[in-house]
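Entry 14. Structure prediction run on the chain below.
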Amino acid sequence: MSRNAYRNVRQAPRDLSSGRVLAPGEEVDAADLDLSDGSHDARLVAEGDLLDLDAPDAVDDSELRGEALDARGRELEIEGFSKLNADQKRAAVAEAERAAADENGGQS
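Output returned:
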């Protein structure tokens, strides 16, 4: 099933073209984004700040909860992880995994 949505996977809020501020881990409907060529929102997607939840290769950690989420944070050695709420933890995990993939040249 298509969700037609994007998630802020960074640990910091992101300003959208509409003026809306998207909190870490928060989702937004694609219809609420300006994804035209060269737009601010399209740049956020291209730079990996917003994860397309319909992308076939999207890693969706939104289902991680409780101990599984905490264990993943420990594995990734995320600083200050224990002080974050669940949505912030999921965003931090996604950002750390993206950073690790970038360091490995995109290889998992």
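The first helix runs from residue 40 to 46.
Filed with the rest of this week's runs.
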